[in-house]
């Protein structure tokens, strides 16, 4: 029995599964990741992307921030891929209890998942820094330059920028879900971004599955290791 078959068998046997995912979940929906050869970090801008999407850059150069953000971070027409849809199906079957995601695209919810913990926020939510009124993604897309609220305040995406901390409630919820999970599936992430990657340390079970095209620092801890595209694995549940 190969590792994919072992994984499928385990999923059928478990009913308290948590999925922890990264950019690789959404690349099949046409949303580029950050670190691959054609990812955001390898594109040429006046500043490196990790600088542009930092808190200090947003504060100092909001117009430059928004030029990059609208051009490279928003994919309003993206559709859920096989992995998103398979996870939503497993939730409906009572097997998957939570999705913990580093992605900010809202595709898990679009696919039908209801218990989604968004560690890094969502591009679909935006708020006025002055009056705290919330706006959808259309407000950002349709604005010229810096999006401004009716009250005159600047609108900020509800995403965690570099130099900003994760939301405490989201971290607590993620930790609790992972601690209680019978099975933890980690997919589409290089596990190089902290503190998010460190959440795996809270898993106490013996069914840790890592699915990623390239190696991660946690490979030697996996009970099942699958080096393959997520869609090739999760199509088995559709």
Automatic annotation (TrEMBL):
> Pfam families recorded for this chain?
SIR2
- Record-annotated Deacetylase sirtuin-type domain positions: 1-238
Cofactor field: Zn(2+)
| Top-level division of the source organism's lineage | Bacteria
Where in or outside the cell it occurs: the entry states: Cytoplasm
Q: How is the cofactor bound?
A: Binds 1 zinc ion per subunit.
User: What residues bind NAD(+), as annotated?
Assistant: 23, 27, 34-35, 102, 104-105, 120, 189-190, 212
Q: Where does nicotinamide bind?
A: 34, 104-105
Q: What reaction is this protein's catalytic activity?
A: N(6)-acetyl-L-lysyl-[protein] + NAD(+) + H2O = 2''-O-acetyl-ADP-D-ribose + nicotinamide + L-lysyl-[protein]
**What UniProt keywords are attached to this protein's entry?**
Cytoplasm, Metal-binding, NAD, Transferase, Zinc
What's the chief localization of this chain?
cytoplasm
Provide one Gene Ontology cellular component.
Answer: cytoplasm
**Active site positions, chain numbering:** 120 (proton acceptor)
Tell me, what is one Gene Ontology molecular-function annotation carried by this entry?
A: zinc ion binding
Query: EC number(s) in its UniProt entry?
Result: 2.3.1.286
Q: What are the binding positions for Zn(2+) in this chain?
A: 128, 131, 149, 151
Instruction: Tell me the protein family, please.
Output: Belongs to the sirtuin family. Class U subfamily.
Q: What does this protein do?
A: NAD-dependent protein deacetylase which modulates the activities of several enzymes which are inactive in their acetylated form.
UniProt name for this protein: NAD-dependent protein deacetylase
List the source organism: Lachnospira eligens (strain ATCC 27750 / DSM 3376 / VPI C15-48 / C15-B4)
Species lineage: Bacteria, Bacillati, Bacillota, Clostridia, Lachnospirales
């Amino acid at each position: 029995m190969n590792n994919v078959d072992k994984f499928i068998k385990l999923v059928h046997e478990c009913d308290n599964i948590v999925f922890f995912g990264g950019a690789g979940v959404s690349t099949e929906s046409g949303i580029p990741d950050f670190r691959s050869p054609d990812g955001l970090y390898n594109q040429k801008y006046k500043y490196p992307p990790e600088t542009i999407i930092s808190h200090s850059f947003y504060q100092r150069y909001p117009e430059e921030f928004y030029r990059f953000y609208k051009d490279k971070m928003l994919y309003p027409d993206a559709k859920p891929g096989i992995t998103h849809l398979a996870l939503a199906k497993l939730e409906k079957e009572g097997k998957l209890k939570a999705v913990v995601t580093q992605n900010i695209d809202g595709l898990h919810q679009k696919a039908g998942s209801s218990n989604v913990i968004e560690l890094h926020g969502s591009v679909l939510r935006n708020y006025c820094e002055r009056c705290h009124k919330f706006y959808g993604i259309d407000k950002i897309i349709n604005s010229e330059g810096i999006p401004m609220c009716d009250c005159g305040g600047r609108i900020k995406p509800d995403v965690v920028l570099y130099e900003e901390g994760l939301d405490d409630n989201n971290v607590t919820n993620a930790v609790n879900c992972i601690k209680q999970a019978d099975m933890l599936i980690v997919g589409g992430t290089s596990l190089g971004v902290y503190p998010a990657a460190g959440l795996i340390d809270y898993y106490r079970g013996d069914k840790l599955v890592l699915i990623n095209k390239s190696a991660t620092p946690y490979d030697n801890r996996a009970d099942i290791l699958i080096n393959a595209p997520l869609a090739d694995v999760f199509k088995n549940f559709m």
